[in-house]
């Protein structure tokens, strides 16, 4: 298959970043080749993509059934609960499948899966090669169809055969690729890494310079190395005191202005990569401008869940509802991914929330116990609330405490 057979039959636009980044625009302004593999070799980009993918993949998926009275209960026996919440295909559990979905959305901008059916019922989802090996195009009638150009599933598929999640962007058939859009940012970081690697390969600069008042002979140079430099260099010999005579002078080597500027550029590059992925820098270990105090860190984590993870979750749930559910199912069922699982490490916070839910009459004791994997207790299915709100100076029934009749 030729290089451009991937895109045969598809109209290519100047704004189609997937095409240009893969085939014509892979080189950045810094002269570095930017692609999927080289981007993931950048520590900041790898950490951002991993945090997004792993965070969403750890959240439980379940179908919820809405009752006539407006109550919402999980429906673990529904077909989509088993497929999307347990094992989407023979090779992947749900956690690995959703990790792949979010990773492709974060880097490639699109996700494609083949719908596996048995007797007309969905029984699985098989991930297809990413864009541009798989892409969407329109028929003459305006319907979507998907072309797979590599792998065991090569062919053309109708819209009802593919589960398609487009990423951020104004093109309804193709989301924007971060690899293509942030090509120059990634290229600058790669160029700085390459520069630093060559610097260390050629030998780092010394930590200090010894200045002589005149030109030394070969014998004098040998004596200086043996009697001054040798005995006081290395980890085992550090911290000693030696005498300098004859006009010798020692000056420490500080960071040059050029290296200081490179360090600042590197720090800015990490922050810029975080902006492209929508991940707060502190989450990947870049904490220079971040608070490490409990309340500040808690607020930042809440912002990450709301502003970074929620858009992916909403996008995924919307496509599940649109593509994998019938119109009748949408009236009584809804897909749900709970962000509450992110707080499982905060045992104190979870306990306080559970207590407030039970005392406020929002959940029963058995509902809380079921969520924590504990068996139900007798009388635990009754909603309860505290009855301690009484008038000041009166009895619980509202009478005057000073009145003997009350």
How would you portray this structure in words?
With about 400 residues, this protein is α+β, with helices and mostly antiparallel strands. Helices cover about 40% and strands about 15% of the residues. It has a three-stranded antiparallel β-sheet. A three-stranded antiparallel β-sheet has the order 4-3-8. Strands 5-6-7 form a three-stranded antiparallel β-sheet, with no helix packed on it. It is flat and about 100 Å long.
Major sheet: order of its strands?
2-1-11
User: Strand portion, in percent?
Assistant: 5-15%
Helix content: 25-40%
Catalogue the unreliable spans. 1-7
Number of continuous helical runs: 13
Radius of gyration: 31 Å
Beginning-to-end CA distance, first to last residue: 94 Å
Q: How many strands appear in the DSSP assignment?
A: 11
Mean pLDDT, all residues: 80
Specify the biggest β-sheet: 3 strands, antiparallel
Order of helices and strands: HHHEEHHEEEEEEHHEHEHHHEHH
Spatial shape: flat
Structural class: alpha+beta
